[in-house]
Amino acid sequence: MKYIILFVAAFFITSPLLFSQQKTIEKTTAHPADKIKQYWFVLLTTGPNTEADSASKAILFEKHMANINSLYYDGIIKAAGPFGKNNNEWRGLFIFDCATREEAEQYVLTDAAIAAGLLSAEITPWYTAPIGSFTPGKPVKKP
User: Fold this and answer.
1) CB contact at 8 A, 112 and 67
2) What is the pLDDT of residues 49-68, one digit of tens each?
3) Edge to edge, what strands does the sheet with 37-46 contain?
4) pTM score of the predicted model
5) 40, 72, 87, 101: which has the fewest Cβ within 10 Å?
6) Which residues contact 4 (CB under 8 A, 6 or more apart)?
């Protein structure tokens, strides 16, 4: 009997603490949709330079990939990749995490394939919650 009384007493003593902590957790844990942020969607399309030879293209696309990796590890590119072969015009996409369109344009110009005209870029605002790949900051480089 005394164990039941101790249990009931402990419950009444600790329950206000437990319930107040739950309210604090609910207040501080926001839904991701409440934190929607603007990013920059870059649609890569076939560029005007159709005369480049295969050796030049290979070098330019090596530089293109190196630039993607650099921007990724700088925390700028949150997503990048090519589209399938079903569409001759659309080639790939970038999603940049930067403040302005002008900044996004500057990042686009760092791409060798775009600078050489193999690819063209269309930039538009795009919105999502900063979670998963879109978590702020730079990713950690693997050794």
Assistant:
1) yes
2) 999 999 999 999 999 999 99
3) 77-82, 90-96, 37-46, 119-128
4) 0.73
5) 87
6) none
